[in-house]
Design a protein that fits this description.
3 helices; alpha+beta; 5 strands; 102 residues; 29% helix; 3-stranded mixed β-sheet
Amino acid sequence: MATEREVLEFIIVPPFEQRAAVAAAKERFENYLANRFPGYSFRVGPFAPVGDVDEFSVLPLMNFLGDDGKSYMCVPPKRWFVSEIADACKQFDMRGLRHFAA
């Protein structure tokens, strides 16, 4: 009997022109997404020619190991959820202006 599980981890591939800024803010960016979407984890992937070169690509990690040690596929995430993640990526401040720094 296969175990069903939702996708809990995503790889974010930045647009080509933003790859350096995203790499410089990688840890903050990953934490921002994890805080914005509790219960999910995010990793910034290296730039690859994926999707539209002007948009963030959100790639779900679809496999997981079951209790029996076999590999299973997760239930695909809803399109609206992937779209919300991509929108959150666009809203992130890469420059990291900290107006309230102590």
